[in-house]
Design goal:
By secondary structure, this protein is α/β, with parallel strands linked by helices. The protein has helices at 3-28, 61-66, 92-106, 123-133, 156-167, 258-265, 283-294, 318-321, 331-341, 348-357; strands at residues 32-39, 76-85, 111-117, 140-143, 177-181, 184-187, 192-193, 202-203, 211-214, 217-220, 246-250, 270-275, 298-303, 324-325.
């Protein structure tokens, strides 16, 4: 064999070996997932393993990660602390800060997804807020717990493990913001909290689960039909807190109209009525709603039942009153959408279109 031909073959062989080495490295490289911590029970600390009382948000994100060493088998995991609060204290400022941080992380090519630790009290609201303002189809997965990190049989570690597994799962892309708790995968559009203390407190009601995660192994059932995340028209880029004030008014037997007029007098730009049954309220309350709409306040009818769909013009004439029907959204979620809608318009017809699609 002539030297030149032998040299050529050696060069080809070397190139193939290098390519195989690089391919193996790429295949062994784990997806990068960032855990963004906000506090909550999952980061709570109590005096003993059986104490009912605890301090929310007492444990930092680095400790949460260290408590689940198995995460290294799933992904290249790092953490960032955005807040250290109980989710009952969640507010517009933290929402906007969290949304901007998530969008910043997801814009990085090497970040596969984001997991967020959060208290369960307002998880349904924060997840839906992010569902509307995240600008990526990469997975965003909230998780939390019903027992603090120091509790006997704490539920947080496995929830974090599953949340990271979902955030690293390419099949989770394009499904909007998700919530992973108790082996279940919920859509942010549907999830509600249904019990004060039960570990299995989260439900997606009639809509059903998006999927399930068993020790990091995911099974997928559906993708949410509503507009969300990368396709959403809503954004908080450049938006400063507070968002437009929207109050929720709880309807009940013998409801007084002054709770509505008082909210308007105190600066509410929008109202969500948590109505009885199909979004109903007393006749005097309806008159107060009519007066509020006349003053430019947007009023959305929802239901305190946490089930069913509030459609237009069933028992209440929305066309005549100028009110908006919340469709599938419960009062808490209806409030979130109205806050963002009011950044764009006060026109009730345009806002109804948002509720029909989001």
């Amino acid at each position: 064999m002539r030297p030149s031909k032998k040299l050529f073959l050696l060069m080809v062989l070397g190139a193939l070996m290098l390519a195989n080495c690089q391919t193996g490295t790429a295949q062994n490289r784990k997806p990068k997932v960032v855990i963004v911590a906000t506090g909550g029970t999952i980061a709570g600390s109590a005096e003993s393993q059986t104490a009912a009382g605890y301090q929310s948000g007492a444990v930092g994100v680095d400790i949460l990660i260290q408590a689940v060493p198995q995460l290294k088998d799933l992904a290249d995991v790092s953490g960032e602390q955005v807040a250290s609060i109980g989710s009952q204290d969640m507010n517009d400022e933290v929402w906007i800060k969290l949304a901007n941080k998530v969008n910043e992380l997801l814009a990085k090519p090497d970040v596969a997804g984001v997991a967020i630790t959060h208290g369960t009290d307002t998880m349904e609201e924060t997840s839906y807020f992010l569902h509307l303002v995240v600008k990526s189809d990469k997975p965003v997965v909230l998780t939390g717990s019903m027992r603090p990190s120091t509790a006997m049989s704490a539920d947080g570690p496995l929830n974090i493990y599953n949340a990271v597994a979902i955030a690293a799962d390419p099949k989770a892309r394009g499904r909007g913001v998700l919530v992973a708790v108790d082996d279940d995968i919920h859509s942010a559009h549907d999830i509600i909290k249904t019990h004060t203390t039960d570990v299995r407190t989260m439900s997606s009601g009639e809509a059903g689960l998006v999927g399930a995660s068993l020790f990091g192994k995911d099974t997928w059932y559906r993708s949410p039909a509503q507009v969300n995340t990368a396709k959403s028209e809503f954004s908080v880029a450049g938006v400063k807190a507070p968002l437009p004030r929207v109050d929720i008014i709880y309807a009940h037997a013998n409801m007084s109209p002054d709770v509505i007029s008082s909210a308007v007098a105190n600066g509410a730009k929008g109202l969500v009525i948590a109505g009885v049954g199909d979004g109903n309220m007393t006749a005097p309350a309806l008159e107060a709603v009519k007066a509020a709409v006349a003053k430019g306040v947007v009023v959305v009818r929802s239901s305190r039942t946490n089930g069913g769909i509030i459609r237009r013009n069933i028992e209440v004439n929305d066309d005549q009153l100028g009110t908006v029907a919340s469709m599938e959204l419960n009062p808490a979620k209806a409030r979130v959408l109205l806050q963002l809608a009011l950044l764009k318009t006060k026109d009730s017809k345009a806002i109804q279109d948002y509720y029909d699609r989001y």
